[in-house]
Amino acid sequence: MLDLSLLEYAAIGFFAVTGALMAAEKEMDIFGFILLGTVTGIGGGTIRDLLLGDVPIFWVKDPIFIIVCASVSTLVFFAREMPEQRLKLLLWLDAAGLAVFAIRGAHKALAMGTGPTVAIIMGVITATFGGIIRDILGNEIPLILRREIYVTAAFIGVLVYLAGLYTLPPAVAAGLGMIVALLVRVLAIQFHWSLPTYKAKI
Amino acid sequence: MLDLSLLEYAAIGFFAVTGALMAAEKEMDIFGFILLGTVTGIGGGTIRDLLLGDVPIFWVKDPIFIIVCASVSTLVFFAREMPEQRLKLLLWLDAAGLAVFAIRGAHKALAMGTGPTVAIIMGVITATFGGIIRDILGNEIPLILRREIYVTAAFIGVLVYLAGLYTLPPAVAAGLGMIVALLVRVLAIQFHWSLPTYKAKI
Amino acid sequence: MLDLSLLEYAAIGFFAVTGALMAAEKEMDIFGFILLGTVTGIGGGTIRDLLLGDVPIFWVKDPIFIIVCASVSTLVFFAREMPEQRLKLLLWLDAAGLAVFAIRGAHKALAMGTGPTVAIIMGVITATFGGIIRDILGNEIPLILRREIYVTAAFIGVLVYLAGLYTLPPAVAAGLGMIVALLVRVLAIQFHWSLPTYKAKI
User: Fold this and answer.
1) In chain C, what percentage of residues exceed pLDDT 70?
2) How far is CA A97 from the centre of its chain?
3) Would you call C82 exposed, middle or buried from its count of C-beta atoms within 10 A (0-12, 13-18, 19+)?
4) Is A79 touching C (CB cutoff 8 A)?
5) pLDDT at A125 over 80
6) Of C115, C142, C152, the CB nearest to A31
7) Beta-carbon separation of C35 and B144 below 8 A
8) What is the pLDDT of residues C95-109, one digit of tens each?
């Protein structure tokens, strides 16, 4: 079975940093950083596992995930040279986490025996809910409501992954899905890409 | 055992439409429609099943629910002749979903062996949380905070259903509960009914 | 094993009152009080048990918790002599609930076999998420974002409890942890204590 655990650590770390950056935005103290960073880092995967019935949740079984989140949140708190464009950095790390979690969510759903429909929605939920929880706790407009392609990047990445599984080795399909999701999202941020929206049609 | 599954499809579809209407309000693209429609459609039942410990969740076992949500969301996206009063339509469909989910939530709790107290709160949570998730993701004031009777309609419907179970056939009790909940909510919307609120007493 | 169940009833009642006070703030009707009071009272413990995989949730097994929440919410609704400073009362009861739930969350995690890292984060999540759900449903800025020490009080209380377990009888360690968490939070409210925040360092 394809092992995505190293990538998962990275993605959880990325999301934890975005949570900590939100905590910085809100001028929270160090324990606020740790809570917001940790909840953001593990949020998407937690909801995924709850829905799949894989309890106790992964980070209860293996607390290293919490230590990763708490550590990066603490590092962000003590980073004296925070880049001015915190929101920009948040968007990029969020994009990287989104790409990995989309594939990882779909991959885990398939591994637990679901079909492709559930895998798609599970990938998208895993990818987006960590950020949604972060934005709600930070009292910010959720990223999913922003005009630039966001949910779509997760959808497309998962579709590429699922299609790839028919012909490619799993690791290649997964890598391809992540790269496509990341590219779509990063280009969308950079060039303010958006799909036609509802209003645009009227 | 009483089978409410057909009605559940309908209610999930209604809620999915309200999620898609919210996505239209927010000018999201098609994948945003699908995510918001799906999460709204399956949200209440998902929380119900998590709380009852019935995992994997119903839509993981049976992906047809996701296909229903994704399909109606897509239909709403491509509907060229959207009525002007989108919010009104949202309120009515939300009322229909609320009525069915209240009874369905209580019914499933009873079927899993809980007593009436748990059944009542489970009915109300099932009925209201899909809409709550929709409103939070859409960054709108939750419907439960609006002045018109809302939570109350779900409560009353469930109470009628539970009372009816003592004397009526289950299907009749369930139907009666749904009709009462729907009527109460629809009349409340139409005539701006509200119960005495806290402030009103001072 | 240390039995914290009596204290848990009290803490659930405290949180239910804060939920009902929020419902009063929002001028909800009695069923709104019951829903908001109940969800706030049982919210933190519900998320704790979902994450630990202890389902059905405690209040599904034992509906007395719901009856407690519904009763105190109803009492608050009919209380004619509500103190003027509702927000202040909410803060103090929230502090008491926070202190008990922090220790109770950590205690239950340990009892289910987790290590101290998971116990810490579980204590903090149990302590804070009831209030977070209340603030989100009430459309208010979450308390965790306020400047006064909040998350930190829960963290410190749990750390004192875990440290105490090495040398003290469990009941004493738990009591000490609760008192410290409560003191830290109450003093923070009273004297507007706050830790250095991110911005303060620049």
Assistant:
1) 93
2) 4
3) middle
4) no
5) yes
6) C152
7) yes
8) 999 999 999 999 999
Chain A adjacent subunits, 3+ CB pairs under 8 A:
B, C
pLDDT band at C80 (very low <50, low <70, confident <90, very high): low
In chain B, helix, strand, coil percent, each to 5? 75, 0, 25
**What residues does each domain of chain A span?**
5-201
| B136 contact A CB<8A | yes
Of A134-143, A164-173, C51-60, C81-90, which range is least confident?
A: C81-90
* Residue A38 near chain C (CB below 8 Å): yes
| B7 in contact with chain A, both atoms CB, cutoff 8 A | no
Which residue in chain B is spatially nearest to C48 when comparing CA positions? B51
**Arithmetic mean of pLDDT, B57-62:** 91
Chain B residues whose beta carbon lies within 8 Å of the beta carbon of residue C24: 198-199
User: B137-190: per-residue pLDDT in tens?
Assistant: 988 888 888 777 889 999 999 999 999 999 999 999 999 999 999 999 999 988
State the Cα–Cα distance between residues A27 and C145, nearest whole angstrom. 8
Quote the ipTM score: 0.87
Angle B170-191/B151-165 helices, nearest 10 degrees? 160
pLDDT at C83 exceeding the cut of 70: no
Map residue A90 onto helix, strand or coil: helix
Q: In this predicted model, what pLDDT tens digit does every residue of B29-42 receive, in sequence order?
A: 888 899 999 999 99
Kindly report the pTM of this predicted structure. Answer: 0.90
8 Å CB contact of B35 and A124: yes
Question: Could you tell me if B91 and B189 are in contact, meaning their C-beta atoms sit under 8 angstroms apart?
Answer: yes
Q: How many Å lie between the alpha carbon of C79 and the closest alpha carbon of chain B? A: 9
| Secondary structure (DSSP) of B183-202 | HHHHHHHHHT-----TGGG-
Q: Residue C77: closest CA among chain B residues belongs to which residue?
A: B198
Q: Which of C158, C183, C43 is nearest to C104 (CA)?
A: C158
Q: Is B195 on the interface with A (CB under 8 A)?
A: no
Closest-CA residue of chain B to C23: B198
